[in-house]
Amino acid sequence: MAPLPLQATERMADFDLTEDQRLVRQTVREFAEHEILPYVEQYEREEQYPLELIQKLVPLGYIAPMIPEQYGGSFIDVVSYGIICEELARVDWVVASVVSVINSLAGGSILRFGSEEQKQRWLPGMTRGEILCSACLTEPGGGTDLGNLKTTATRVDGGWKLNGTKVFISHAAHAGLFFTVASIDLEKKHKGVTAFLVDPKTDGISLGEFPMRTLKRDNLAEVHFEDSFVPDDCVLGEPGGGFPILGSALDMGRYSVAARCVGQSQRTLDLAVAYASEREAFGQRIGEFQMIQQKIADMVCRTEGARAVVYRLGRMKDAGIQRASMEASIAKLMASEANTQNALDAVQIHGGYGVAAEYEVGRHILEAKALEFGEGTSELHRKLIAEYALGIRKQ
Ligand SMILES: Cc1cc2nc3c(=O)[nH]c(=O)nc-3n(C[C@H](O)[C@H](O)[C@H](O)COP(=O)(O)OP(=O)(O)OC[C@H]3O[C@@H](n4cnc5c(N)ncnc54)[C@H](O)[C@@H]3O)c2cc1C
What we know:
By secondary structure, this protein is α+β, with helices and mostly antiparallel strands. Helix 4 (about 80-90) runs antiparallel to helix 5 (about 95-115) and helix 7 (about 240-280) runs antiparallel to helix 8. About 50% of the residues lie in helices and about 15% in strands.
């Protein structure tokens, strides 16, 4: 794959990044372009989970940038974490997703709500790349209404028995930790939700295939819990106290997913610019046609606008504002929709080659669309943003 043209990738709303943050971007980008990008298409064609690519993150500390050094992580600021997610997603959805699930969802929740024993048990393995994580949240009956989940946790001597099914689970076959939620009392709805840290090798847990039209290299799975016994020390926080843990995890998850969408938007913009600069029709480069320029202009504006709100959210978190749920919804909504529209425009600029297997750009349409669902759909975020604006919901 040809390296990206410099003039396109320099167009970024990052004028006030610190020198260190700029250095993070430069080093992650160089790493991602040389060590990840050239291999992604092959993994997708062969439907192979990119474990070897993921392991390349470990020596550089990119796998655990939000985990403190005392547990082996490479702890950095939240803006830099977003930049890592952005740059990794610019070259690969799955590799970036691994980082997002470890740092925002599983590891991040353990850091915020776990006991010292739970931190010692799980975090060092994550930083060494030995424990990848899955967030097992979505159920066959729905992923948006998480307060209404059907997986149950029944009290037994010394722990809990889990029963239920989770679907769409990324990384499941390679995970060493399932961060999951189950209800200890279905009638209590969200007040029954409890968070669990589960070893995937636990008796009674099995994986089922969950075939997808896209992201075949992610090998998404169903996860079945059948009378799976988990001891008390697998409960994260308090029994019945899982919903706020979930809220906090998704708040941070939405930040990293939004950052990933910015990276992918940048990638489709870069591909479109490169193609429009070379391809000719009617005796001139197609980038000289106003209708193509209009698309490029819109792609730049979407990418820059999304990046600005994502960086703002990162700065808010660096300033110590832990819950910025409205801003997280704004960032997720804007960045994920920018990503999908950029992918569509980039494919259109490529003409028929946009859907030819030889060209990467077509792959981005469904991959971008998938990011509109994870960590809350566009409808959910519009609902949340409107409720904050109307005062129906408070931060
Ligand atoms: C590639 C990929 C990877 C994924 N990885 C994971 C993973 O690792 N772990 C995991 O747990 N899940 C994962 N998911 C699942 C994802 O989080 C869910 O698809 C998402 O939460 C939506 O749930 P659903 O698909 O069940 O849709 P539903 O909740 O059934 O919603 C269906 C439609 O109804 C709309 N809707 C629902 N409620 C409302 C409302 N109140 N107002 C207006 N509209 C509404 C939704 O926006 C959507 O358009 C993944 C999904 C994809 C595509």
